[in-house]
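Q: I have 321 residues here and want to know how they pack in 3D. Can you give me a structure?
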Amino acid sequence: MLSTNNNTNFNFKGKIIDAHVHCGQWNFDRFPCEDVIKFFNRKFNNGKDYVDRVIISNLDCIKTGKNNKPLKDEISGNLLLLNASIKDKKFVPFVVCQPGHGSAENIEILLKEYPQLIKGLKFHPACLNLAANDIRYMPYMQLAEKYNKPCLFHSEVLSDEAGNMLKNGVSDPEVIYETAKRFPKVPVILGHMGLGGDKAHEAGIKTLIKSIDNNDARLYADLAWVDWDNPNKPHIVEAIDKLQHSSKGDMTERLLFGTDAPLGVFGEKALKQKGAYDQNIKNIKNVIKENFGEDANKLISRIFYRNSKKLLDKQNINITG
């Protein structure tokens, strides 16, 4: 890592793309699209940071009810978000897919109807209670390949009471990796970089680096909830360092800023943690400055904005058949 002594042009200002945002219903909280837009239509950190766009999916299609079915189906739930996204260009919609409940045909109907608006597919294996390598994901992944859409998977490493990691979690990064290897052209984002604490994030980083070393999948990771309560951001630093020095060279383009807003502390309803979103941005930037010196500006620009923009821009939207 580099010294910070010569870094005089540190980038605390700039546009941000939050790669992991939601609207809709989660437990007892309701987050209407209008409220989410209101939250993001402001400057952060005393006007120094501006969220230009948010990659967003509808929780109504993710959260399951008493019958273990999603609250809304693939058509109705995704249409709510798509209609809101037409009105506000800040929204970058990823349509939620429901293997085991819905069908890839539903998603293709939406892709054909909104070819320019839909920018990706979203999967939440934990809520579906369906392992990410299950055959029922494959028709959806074929669509992602056909329409050149990235896929965002909720990733999570389970552990037992003694803290030992379990390898049979439905959202385990390694399980997602198995599916990603079957579709090496499809960008697959490990949401949360392996949720579940220190060992979980380390496992997420390990899987990400392995995919790069083996050159057999296009894995990315977002930083939603990663080190959120630790100002030193050790796993973010580890991920950046290992990506910078991967066997394939600098691969820091695979890391995306994300929060999971407006869930938990990252929304206006979290009164006890008011300003947590701003503080998270500030802490990550501080840690990058402290650990990566003259590379800090470039890394901040990539992680907070350019990497997501590059991923979203690399899409073919004029696909027929």
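Q: Anything worth noting?
A: The chain has one domain: 14-313. DSSP finds ten helices and twelve strands in the chain.
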